């Protein structure tokens, strides 16, 4: 596996459109800490970003020797609002952005049955350009449960359309996210996200799931084993032959700095990866 850092580390849990520090700072710290790539989001560059800015980011990453593990091309995908399925209907600019960043994996979102045909067409366009589409296990989507995800993947029926395994969302949805889930999803797994949460009825952060309704959660430190312990999951990924990206998808929490959060993430996960 290769360790990637989502630029979400520079975002707050409630703001996904603005980064607290420039991506140049995030990238330099990630490289120094030992990360191999960045998972790119619209808080840094998206489909509406000027081409010059996209080029600057790409050149900066090239200088540092960092790859882009996945591209989330607009804010709607990150917040999962009503327009999050638009990329499936107009995938070309998202493919263009990924190509400009020298990345072959794009995040997409599906909400309903109508999205099946659009996902097939988007995947067909993507494969012509050597790219893959990945749907995160995520609340408020057709990928809240393993059964649901596998059903959709079968109906989409494209080898370049897969899943991003993400245990925190599965926990919020009341789904088993352990080794058994990893084994079932492994044949379709294109990416792994890790963020650490606890279920907390007193929290103001709420995941609006379909299967359980509103679920209050609290983000906790990556090393807090009272949340999700990643060691067992990483072992299951290795046992099932997963050798792709493992991306730390944690928002900035507490009063710590982005720089410290990046160093802590690397110290926690590099030995396990």
Question: How would you explain this protein's 3D organization?
Answer:
By secondary structure, the protein is of the alpha/beta class. The chain has one domain: TIM Barrel, CATH 3.20.20. It has helices at 23-33, 51-64, 75-79, 86-89, 92-100, 115-128, 146-156, 167-172, 179-185, 230-239, 258-269; strands at residues 2-6, 37-40, 67-71, 105-108, 132-136, 161-165, 189-194, 197-199, 205-208, 214-219, 245-248. The strands form two sheets. It has an eight-stranded parallel sheet with strand order 3-2-1-11-7-6-5-4. A three-stranded antiparallel sheet has the order 8-10-9. Helix 2 links the parallel strand 2 and strand 3. The longest helix is centred in the N-terminal third of the chain and has 14 residues, at 51-64. The chain starts with a strand and ends with a helix.
Task: State the gist of this model.
This protein is an alpha/beta fold.
Mean pLDDT: 95
- Spatial order of the strands in the main sheet? 3-2-1-11-7-6-5-4
Largest pleated sheet: 8 strands, parallel
Can you count the beta strands? 11
Helix/strand class: alpha/beta
How many separate structural domains?
A: 1
The level of helicity is 25-40%
Low-confidence stretches: none
What's the name of the CATH homologous superfamily? Divalent-metal-dependent TIM barrel enzymes
Q: Write down the overall geometry.
A: globular
**Tell me, what is the CATH class?**
Alpha Beta
Head-to-tail CA distance between termini: 6 Å
List the secondary-structure elements in sequence, H or E.
Answer: EHEHEHHHEHEHEHHEEEEHEH
